[in-house]
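Input record, target 12 of the design panel.
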């Protein structure tokens, strides 16, 4: 969002229209593969449910600066953006891939 907003602002400063397509993908397929491999080798109690709870997902949006022809009324307005990592949470969604693709 930050980069999309900066691109739109730069176009605004130049008096040019901007339409920025941004998307994000979460790729949990390696996690699923790891959990399935772990289920074959150990007991059910040792298998994490994270793969079932957090499946693959994606989202996209188009950010514009309101300059140009055929501008539609905005559905949302970007007021601010930020990112952060909650303390002591880095290990919750991390993994190391080993050969042949097992975690």
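The sequence produced for target 12 reads:
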């Amino acid at each position: 969002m930050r980069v999309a907003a900066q691109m739109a602002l730069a176009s605004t400063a130049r008096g040019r229209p901007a339409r920025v397509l941004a998307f994000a993908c979460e790729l949990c397929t390696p996690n699923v593969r790891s959990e399935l491999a772990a289920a074959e080798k150990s007991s059910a109690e040792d298998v994490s449910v994270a793969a079932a709870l957090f499946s693959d997902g994606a989202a996209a949006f188009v950010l514009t600066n309101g300059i140009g022809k055929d501008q539609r009324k905005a559905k949302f307005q970007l007021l601010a953006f930020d990112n952060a990592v909650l303390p002591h949470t880095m290990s919750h969604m991390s993994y190391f891939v080993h050969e042949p693709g097992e975690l």
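Residues 1-66 form one domain.
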